[in-house]
Amino acid sequence: MDVRLNCRVVNCHSRVRLIRSMFYLLLALVFVQLYGTHGKEIRIGGLFGGDEFDIESYAAFRIAIDYVNERDDILPNDTLSYVMPQSSKIGTFETIKRACSLLQEGPVAVIGPGTTTGVKAVSPIFDSLHISHISSAATDPTLSVYSEQFPFLFKMSSPDTYQSDALFDLIEHYGWSKFGIIASATDYGRNGLNSLQSQALKRDWVITAVLYFQPTCGMTAESIDSMLYQILSKGTRVVVLNCLAKYARIILDRASELEMLGEGWAWITTDGVTALGSVYDDCGDVPLYLKGLIGTRPLFSAGALYDDFSEAWKNKSKMLMDEIRDPTCPNCTGATTGSVSCLPPGSELGNNSQCEVDRISYIVRVFDAVLATAYGIHNYLRDGWVLSPPRFDDDICSAAELRPWGRGELLARYISRVSGDGASSKIGFTNLRYPVIATYDIVNLVEDGWQTVGKWSNDGGTNELSTNESVYFPGFTETIPEDSKVDLSNIKLRVITIVEAPFTMKRVGVTSKEKNKYEGYCIDLLNKLQERLKFQYELDLVPDGSYGGRDPVTGEWNGMVGELIKGNADLVVAPLTINYERDQVIDFTKPYQDLGNLILMVKEYPQNNIFAFMDPFSTTLWLVLGAAFIVCGLATTLVSWLSPFGKRGAYSSGLDVVRDKYKPERNVLNLWNSMWNTFSLWMMQGAQVTPNCLSGRLVYGAWYFTVMVISATYTANLAAFLTVQRLDSGVNNLQDLADQKEIKYGTVKDTAIYEFFKIQVTEPYTTMYKYMEQMSANVPNSSVGFDMVQNSYGKPKLQRYAFIYDSIPLEYAANQQPCHTMTIGRLFNQFGYGLALQKNSPYVELFSLEILRLRQQGYFNTLYNKWVVSGSCESDASASTKTSVAQQATINQMTGVFLLMSCFLALALIVVLFEYCAAAKNDKEKDASVTFSGSFVRRCRSIQKDVRHNIGTCICCQNDNEGSIQHDLAIQHELAIQHELTIQHELAAQHEVIAEIKSGDNNKTVTGRSDFTYDNVLVESEKQKNGSNLSQM
């Protein structure tokens, strides 16, 4: 019983579950019937504006929906319908309002908007609600680069990055490397060629100008003249035009009037001109001046369904466009009324011509956008998913919280995976939701319209360009034009300069109405260049009086550099320094003047100094020089006494036979006379008495050499001290200026030298920059700096000012009255002045070559001599440019001289010993009875006795005193004794000879003496006896 009861309970529960399942299935069927679209109508939204392109897009949109509904293999059990709000206004805000209105109709996807601006406006709404929207012509690369910000956006056209690649390859194909860009100031115009510019920079190509204009229907030829004149002034002959056709027509018309569409020019247009409208009327005859345009156009006829679309377009487009065109305004293309296009009369669309289809190739992509949506929905339903339409409140765009459509993300995933046939090409998307294959036609505007002359494609990351040989350029010629043509003949340049002596100065006595108001170095240079290059110019001063510096906050440049960047000037002729920062934003010619930086200071106020003649030598050197003078005087006296060949030594150590010879001059080199002679040599007057001995001459030679070096050094230093006595302010160079704190110093703000100090990381520059900033020592212009230096003349150092600036203006200032200034130190931070032009100006090379020619001819030396060094203070200026003030000579610099003199004195003493030896040898040779040692000792003793007896009396006196006479008598007595002994010795020898003779031959000679005959001996003996007797008397 329990078992049966349990079975009944189980069966009961089973039945309940079955009934519940059937109930849920019934509810699902009811839900599908009420809310599902399977087998029902599926709504697709159309979001188009009111201009010509949107009218055509609407027609293609309707044709595509009809085409899908007619096919049995796409959504066979469902019907596509469209919803599209009407509006009489256009604009971004109106597009957002129409998007909000469209969502209230419950579309599962939206086709449009076609422009990048419109897409960016409505994407936040669609993405928040998970509604897929497909744009036919939004090609802004940022939509793909930042695809995560547009998760439900699909692009039927490749990003402009690919078109830039195609343009790059086309420009390279013709060998051009310089071109200009004119584009509309829209997302399409600004971002469309970013990739082209980046690639050109990588290849070191020159983009001479990137010019933007505001696209409005009220554009006039005059409003775009400034752009075209800039293209002309830069010598560019290749122009890339990136805008819609209706604006391109105005630009090209004006370019034709300026003869910019003739032979020698090349105009390259983008898809805005070749595919989004027409630059000539209603596909009629192409004007002659437009023939030869080349450009890129998205390939639109490569799809399998292109013929189907083309046929449907011919049959239905005019009728469909008439549905929303205002019948009261044939040239209006508003959704209802009030929106007028820029089409000229007679250019309305819908004439069912093949030309019309060619010029609206982006419309084909609207057709493909509907097909892509249909393919995605078809696959979605095929996989069994239920497609319930989104339900949004009427105030969806103003709701505090947006509730996304639950099926939207899945449907977007199916659309991103579609792959099928299309009209323009095979439909498929990359992971960034743009077409898999990017293909462009290279087109050439000829008599019959745009003719395809080549093709560019990117398949698998590889770019490939192919072109026909027959391509026409403006002037309807097949000759490939050059990318630039440089010729300044009859071109009027806007030249700016700055008042800076001696480069540009206002002429005295000239009124502001006169033409030649300025003179100077730069004015002469400008006129010389004008004479050679045949251009005209209009000269003005820079408005803000600045050379050009960059604001650290805004990054904007002021001064002359800023005027070039803004396009307000074509050429700067001024003392403008060439540096790295400026060269990044403007172009410089070759430098016309090389220079550096110096310091300008006032000279010292002249002061009287009666001992100024002592300044060339230091005190120590003067003392050492005096000591050397005394030493040389003493050495002269000493060697005169000691040397046997000296004035005194020859007398005191010689025999009585020679004493009388030296007696008159024995005291001419006493100490007093020796000191006087030494002093005379010092004064370069020559010696009154010169030594006879070699040792004495060595002493004089050493002193001669010392005096020569000392005199030359003193003369040079004295001249330097007398010349620069007013220049010595204690600052001789930049380091000295940085080390002191008394004299204030600075430079001109926002100049190259100011930036030099600012960016330096080494000393003393960093310290000096901090000081100048802390003390607010910088000046607004150089004239103020010159005045501050001039006004500090004669003032204490604490009230003086030192001006750091370019060397040439400082040299000029130092040459001007009242001649109180001077330049200090050596050149530092050497640089050059150059002419400046706008970035990528074609005239840079022309001016540079002319400057090189002028330099080679010495023209700039002539200008330098005329304007810089021809002042009224030339002599002072030359002295003021000395790199350092004269310095005293010190003992350290003269040590070698005195050391050499000491060596000569020591050598003289050694020579004295050799002189004694030589004298002793001479004595022996004259008298065989005298030995070498005996003579040497005798002379030494004689000199010793002379010194001992006369040292005190012969230092300053020339005449002998009593002590000297007694000394002489003693010496004579000693010599007489020695002479008597010698005579006696010889008499004994003679007697011996006589005895031998008597015993032998009467004429026999003494051995070794041929003159000792008997008769001779007798005679000699008689003489010696007589002499002996006289001596004894």
Automatic annotation (TrEMBL):
One of its GO terms (cellular component) is postsynaptic membrane. GO terms for molecular function: ligand-gated monoatomic ion channel activity; signaling receptor activity. The record marks 731 as: Crucial to convey clamshell closure to channel opening. The record marks 550, 758 as: Interaction with the cone snail toxin Con-ikot-ikot. Coiled coil: none annotated. SUPFAM superfamilies: Periplasmic binding protein-like I (SSF53822), Periplasmic binding protein-like II (SSF53850). It is found in: Cell membrane; Postsynaptic cell membrane. L-glutamate binds at residues 575, 577, 582, 806. Gene3D superfamilies: 1.10.287.70, 3.40.50.2300, Periplasmic binding protein-like II (3.40.190.10). Residues 502-566 form the Ionotropic glutamate receptor L-glutamate and glycine-binding domain. Disulfide bonds join 819-873. Residues 492-870 form the Ionotropic glutamate receptor C-terminal domain. Keywords: Cell membrane, Disulfide bond, Glycoprotein, Ion channel, Ion transport, Ligand-gated ion channel, Membrane, Postsynaptic cell membrane, Receptor, Synapse, Transmembrane, Transmembrane helix, Transport. Its main location: membrane. Pfam families: ANF_receptor, Lig_chan, Lig_chan-Glu_bd. The chain crosses the membrane at residues 21-38, 621-642, 669-690, 702-724, 897-916. It is a multi-pass membrane protein. It comes from the Eukaryota. This is Glutamate receptor. It comes from Paralvinella palmiformis.
